[in-house]
């Protein structure tokens, strides 16, 4: 039987497509393995007496390196609800997450990371890393060198009392290595923390199961460096100390903070 040229051409086309599709299926798994892993989302959590703008230099560097970054507004009302809020932010993120906390924000990430398998690392920047049952005022007062408690001013609000750092002492306690012109603005715009929240007991710490990194400034008068060293050692964290840096080391020495965050990203891939 004579095969029409058009039928022969169609048969050849189908055979060619079948061959191409077969080859594509064969090489697809190999190609997939060469796809680089997604970069983790960096979630930066600020502490009391500050806001998310304190992370600006850190954000700029991380974004330039191609990392997605979120710096949410920490409510600063009480540890439980603040941690629940940050946890809800993590709920919205697909893929790996690195949680970074400054100061009281460290206590928040310690609690917020629980139950999130995609949280791959905790980075504590001049931060509290409490154990279960501890509160941050207790930790700050347990080591010499701290000036935070003696510098607090209180203002009542409906349902509680807020704590501020006395503007006259703000630079000395919080940011001694920043220009006075900058710290005057920071003191005037500081976000207070509820004293009830600051004295609230922490829950089961995520650092017991999630690897941790610490940045410890040696001239920190808000959280004594000795307290930070103790918490880092207890958590089994990897530590970088920044000689002469104040409590706002992410503003005065953002390069060191970014390096420690990148180290956490690299080690947890």
TrEMBL record:
<protein>
    <submittedName>
        <fullName>Pimeloyl-ACP methyl ester carboxylesterase</fullName>
    </submittedName>
</protein>
<dbReference type="InterPro" id="IPR029058">
    <property type="entry name" value="AB_hydrolase_fold"/>
</dbReference>
<keyword id="KW-0732">Signal</keyword>
<feature type="domain" description="AB hydrolase-1">
    <location>
        <begin position="42"/>
        <end position="259"/>
    </location>
</feature>
<dbReference type="InterPro" id="IPR052897">
    <property type="entry name" value="Sec-Metab_Biosynth_Hydrolase"/>
</dbReference>
<dbReference type="GO" id="GO:0003824">
    <property type="term" value="F:catalytic activity"/>
</dbReference>
<dbReference type="InterPro" id="IPR000073">
    <property type="entry name" value="AB_hydrolase_1"/>
</dbReference>
<dbReference type="Pfam" id="PF12697">
    <property type="entry name" value="Abhydrolase_6"/>
</dbReference>
<feature type="signal peptide">
    <location>
        <begin position="1"/>
        <end position="25"/>
    </location>
</feature>
């Amino acid at each position: 039987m004579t095969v029409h040229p058009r039928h022969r051409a169609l048969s050849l086309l189908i055979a060619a497509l079948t061959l191409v599709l077969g080859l594509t299926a064969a090489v697809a798994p190999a190609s997939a393995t060469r796809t680089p892993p997604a970069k983790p989302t960096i979630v930066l959590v600020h502490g009391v007496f500050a806001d998310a703008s304190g992370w600006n230099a850190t954000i700029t560097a991380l974004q330039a390196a191609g990392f997605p970054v979120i710096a949410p507004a920490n409510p600063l009302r009480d540890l439980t609800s603040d941690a629940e809020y940050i946890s809800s932010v993590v709920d919205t993120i697909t893929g790996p997450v690195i949680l970074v906390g400054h100061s009281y924000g460290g206590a928040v990430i310690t609690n917020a990371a629980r139950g999130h398998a995609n949280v791959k690392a905790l980075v504590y920047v001049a931060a509290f890393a409490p154990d279960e049952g501890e509160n941050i005022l207790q930790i700050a007062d347990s080591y010499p060198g701290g000036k935070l408690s003696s510098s607090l001013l209180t203002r009542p609000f409906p349902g509680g009392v807020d704590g501020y750092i006395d503007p006259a002492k703000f630079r000395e306690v919080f940011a001694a290595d920043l220009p006075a012109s900058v710290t005057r603005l920071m003191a005037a715009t500081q976000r207070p923390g509820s004293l009830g929240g600051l004295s609230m007991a922490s829950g089961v710490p995520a650092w017991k199961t999630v690897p941790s990194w610490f940045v410890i400034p040696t001239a920190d008068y808000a959280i004594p460096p000795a307290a930070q060293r103790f918490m880092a050692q207890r958590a089994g964290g990897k530590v970088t100390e920044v000689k002469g840096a104040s409590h706002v080391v992410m503003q005065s020495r953002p390069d060191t903070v970014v390096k420690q965050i990148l180290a956490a990203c690299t080690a947890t891939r």
